[in-house]
Amino acid sequence: MSARQDELLEQYRDNLLGVFGDPSLVLVSGEGVHVTDANGKRYMDLLAGIAVNALGHAHPAWVRAVSEQAGSLAHISNLFTSPGSIALAHKLLDVTGAPEGSHVFFANSGSEANEAAFKLARRHGAAHPDSQGRPRQRVIALEHSFHGRTMGALALTAKEAYRAPFEPLPAGVEHVPATVEALEAALDDTVSAVIVEPVQGEAGVLGLPEGFLARARELTREHGALLVVDEVQSGIGRTGAWLASSAQLPAGEFPDAVTFAKGLGGGFPVGALLTAGPEVSGLLSAGQHGTTFGGNPLAMAAGLATLTVIEDEDVLANARRVGEHLAQGLRAVGGVAGVRQYGLLLGVDLVQEGPEDPVAQRVVAAARDAGFILNATGPATLRLAPPLIITERDVDEFVAALPRLLAAREH
Ligand SMILES: *Cc1c(COP(=O)(O)O)cnc(C)c1O
Fold first, then answer.
1. Modified residue N6-(pyridoxal phosphate)lysine is at which positions (predicted)?
2. Which of 91, 123, 249, 314 is least enclosed by beta carbons within 10 angstroms?
């Protein structure tokens, strides 16, 4: 690492709060699937800002849409609306196949989208009291879940290390194993909502057991609870479909609410809560929720450009095809113990030399030196979530380099 970047990283430590630890790179530009750091070194970005940059960096259509909007009208507050928010809400409802009478609330992040879903659950609980006439206040989430870092989203998140320093968190949330038996045992008429990620990204790209989501749909309906699906990481084409959950639900079935963020703005902060059907859409009334920035014209232009390119350029098919090709390549590499692949969201388990061996961290560092960006979700697990426009040739370059990265023992 040469002088310019070191100097900037020192200034970072002097000026920015240390919650992210020490960033390893100062990035200054990007194009397609590549980014460049402050020293001029180029990297293939196999993480895409953690499943965000769906179209890669500086996609011409995205840049044009955002620039034009910035030059015209960037922000207006929610006392007013703009054609962009109407168009993006309509498009989101359309591509996801949301049922008649569904609606969208725009926020600025995944945590905020889940906060809105949590508030929706509380209103549902009040509107549908239990058999004793008390508001339903229990919310069932899954073990290993990640739903964000704000207090409500954190209450939904399972990881003890994230939660413990900030207790007390909003009450009523229980974390159960992702099994049909656990869900059956947890559900009764005191539950307002069940919230699940169709693929648990932060946990290391863990899919739900076969049939789990379909059964969750049946059970929540039976007990009068909302089924909330967190598609913040898995949605908007990441797994090769607009919704990862649609492949796990019988045809014609839909969750009661879906949250989005990461890929939705293609790199601009946009979050959304989709409420399915008229009844759920009526739970939050005027004045019960809000945001200053959410849905602003600039964010909407970014979201609309992202969804339009994904649709027009058949990006979903690319994500499926290249994702499968990448998984095949990875499975053939010695030192790879297993690959979980959902479109272009991949968890790669590596062989450890001992139970304490942080092989994934070592490979992430070696990859960075070799010009590839990826991350580790655990001591032996890599996560790959590249731009959805990445090509087979691009990923072949990484697969070819991987044996060398795995062999880099010292770091
Ligand atoms: C990233 C993530 C969030 C939180 O989103 P932020 O934009 O960081 O607040 C919530 N849920 C899931 C599944 C995520 O992957």
1. 262
2. 314
Per residue in 296-318, pLDDT tens? 999 999 999 999 999 999 999 99
Q: Domain range holding 251?
A: 73-312
Q: What distance in angstroms lies between residue 111's CA and the mean position of ligand 1's atoms? A: 6
Residue 184 and residue 115 share a domain = yes
State the distance from the centre of ligand 1 to the C-alpha of 7, rounded, in angstroms. 31
Cα 156 to Cα 171: distance, rounded to the nearest angstrom: 10
Please report how many Cα atoms fall inside a 13 Å half-sphere around the Cα of residue 225, on the Cβ side: 28
Q: Give CA–CA dist 108/115, Å, rounded.
A: 11
- Domain contains 269: yes
Cross-strand pairs, 31:
34
**Ligand 1 centroid distance, CA of 48 (Å):** 14
Residue (of 407, 392, 398) closest to 371 by Cα position: 398
- Quick one: pLDDT at residue 3? 81
**Are 223 and 305 in a shared domain?**
yes
Shared domain check, 173 and 241: yes
Binding-site entries? 146, 149, 230-233, 291-292
Taking the model in full, what pTM does it have?
0.98
Nearest-CA residue for atom 11 of ligand 1: 147
- Altogether, the residues listed in the chain come to a count of 411
Is residue 47 one of the residues assigned to a domain?
Answer: yes
| Ligand 1 atom with least separation from CA of 148 | 4
Domain count, the chain: 2
Classify the C-alpha dihedral 306-310-313-318 as positive or negative.
Answer: positive
Residue positions forming the annotated binding site for pyridoxal 5'-phosphate? 146, 230-233, 292
